[in-house]
Amino acid sequence: MSALAHVFEAEGLSTIVLASMKEVAERMMPPRTLYCEFPLGRPLGRPDDVELQLDVLNRALALLESDEPVFETYPLVIESEETPLACSIPPRFDASLPPAVDEAQGLRAAYDRSVEARGVTSVGRAIDADNVVDALDVLHQWAGGASWKETPLPGVITIAVCHDIRAYYSEAALELATGPAPGGRAVESWFYNETEAGKTMMAARAQLKEQDAPFPFWFYMAPAHR
């Protein structure tokens, strides 16, 4: 949307961007931006809250009065109400291994059962299931400050590798989870908040940013709103 705003403005059309991802909007700098720290997919805030949604729209439309670039932040923050997936993670088996590596190995049987039952897997964009532990070992090293240039990641493309790790965990979790089928955000919340792999991935991402790695190389390792 931020890129399209520049295109439309160049053609003489005034635009307003309701941004959910601050870092992306700041980088792209559309002419008029209202950043709303709301759950992704809810640009106007809480469903059925007419008063709030009208206020967001009125504040956004007020930006049309500015002839200069303007970036404002909506004063209310709304936290996600998504409940993480309820899934028991196997206990540690080998304390000598990085926690995420040990965890991933412990989930392999559940992953295999899931693939056998469904006959298909989403893992394989950059690495296969056999390489997940190797990729997590590299992410563990990155999280500890290792150079991303000197410690290459299997599969090379960080976005695709991280996608495969998340898919591996999601498919294993669906085999282990109890209760009704969870929504996609519930699985995402479980991965990043409850698993060692998710925490390692986010720590590695932060370290790459500190090392001034190329923006796309680290930013899209996780959903942009994280």
List keywords for this structure.
226 residues, mainly alpha, three-stranded parallel beta sheet, 10 helices, 3 strands
Overview of the structural elements:
The protein contains 10 helices and 3 strands. The chain has 226 residues and is mainly α. Helix 4 runs antiparallel to helix 6, helix 4 packs antiparallel against helix 9 and helix 6 packs across helix 9. The radius of gyration is 21 Å and the shape is globular. The model has no long low-confidence stretch (mean pLDDT 89).
* Spatial order of strands in the largest sheet: 1-2-3
User: Could you give the distance between the termini?
Assistant: 18 Å
Q: Percent of residues in helical segments?
A: 40-55%
Global mean pLDDT:
89
- Report the sheet with the most strands, covering strand number, pairing sense and barrel closure: 3 strands, parallel
Assess the beta-strand content as a share of residues: under 5%
* SSE sequence, one letter per element: HEHEHEHHHHHHH
Please give the count of helices: 10
Number of E-state strands: 3
Class per helix and strand makeup: mainly alpha
Q: What Rg do the Cα atoms give?
A: 21 Å
Which stretches of 5+ consecutive residues score pLDDT under 50?
none
Shape: globular
Brief account:
The chain starts with a helix and ends in a 7-residue tail after the last helix. It is mainly alpha-helical and 226 residues long.
Task: Give the topology.
Elements: H1 2-10, E1 17-19, H2 22-28, E2 32-35, H3 50-62, E3 70-73, H4 99-106, H5 108-118, H6 132-143, H7 158-176, H8 184-194, H9 196-210, H10 215-219
Parallel strand pairs: 1-2, 2-3
Helix pairs in contact: 4-6, 4-9, 5-7, 6-9, 8-9
